[in-house]
From TrEMBL:
Positions of transmembrane segments: none
UniProt xrefs under PANTHER family: N6-ADENOSINE-METHYLTRANSFERASE, N6-ADENOSINE-METHYLTRANSFERASE CATALYTIC SUBUNIT
Coiled coil spans: none
Protein name: Adenine methylase
Domain of life: Bacteria
Length: 215
């Protein structure tokens, strides 16, 4: 892996383990999900620079699982609340109301974890709390990417489980075009680096499959 990233931004498609996950309300009905073991086995450690910040969304019913992923990917937890997203209704602007446990949920948290030394902070004014409209299933506010770039500056960065490229992030995910890497449980392939090595020549499917086997 030639590309090493100072910032890794991830929104894993967590499998929920409670009754709310059943039927048409559950995440698995709305988009493909992954179990914790398969998330842990993604070789994110191959993408990370020696000094790297991980910003990862997690679900409140599974803090232990989130910490397992952090450790498996080679990071140490800084805080479970790097960002807290307070959700509002898109058109009305008032607080969105979700299902939740005991209380009705209307926020999500993004943890921070570090590998090596913490990358230098470029802007000390970035606040933890973000208010933004709730969008389609699992999509997070674009402003979080903006704030991460403000926080660390124009560092090499990648978004995992991305929908589209934005704010200078390389991307990987089943909903985005032109992923910078191929990432599967057990292996990683640097597509962007290979394209540069081959003078940006397009990779045919047969070439790509052969290089995957060689990786």
């Amino acid at each position: 892996m030639t590309g090493k990233y100072t910032l890794i931004y991830a929104d894993p498609p967590w499998t929920y383990r409670d009754k709310a996950a059943d039927g048409e309300r559950g995440a698995g009905f709305k988009y493909p999900v992954m179990n914790v073991l398969d998330i842990c086995r993604l070789p994110v450690w191959d993408l990370a620079a020696d000094d790297c910040l991980l910003a990862m969304w997690w679900v409140p019913t599974q803090p232990v699982e989130a910490l397992k992923v952090v450790e498996a990917w080679g990071f140490k937890l800084m805080t479970m609340k790097g960002f807290t997203w307070h959700k509002t209704n898109k058109h009305k602007g008032n607080s969105a109301i979700g299902m939740g446990h005991m209380t009705r949920a209307n926020s999500e948290d993004c943890l921070f974890a570090v590998r090596g030394k913490l990358p230098a902070r470029m802007d000390a004014s970035i606040c933890q709390h973000v208010t933004a409209p709730r969008m389609e299933n699992s999509r997070k506010p674009d402003v979080i990417r903006e704030k991460l770039v403000q926080l660390l500056g124009d560092v090499p960065r990648i978004e995992l489980f991305a929908r589209q490229s934005s704010h200078g992030f390389d991307v990987w995910g089943n909903q985005c075009d032109g992923p910078a890497v191929q990432l599967q449980p057990g292996y990683a392939l640097d597509i962007k680096g290979m394209a540069k090595a081959f003078k940006n020549a397009p990779l045919s499917p047969s070439d790509n499959q052969g290089r995957e086997r060689a990786a």
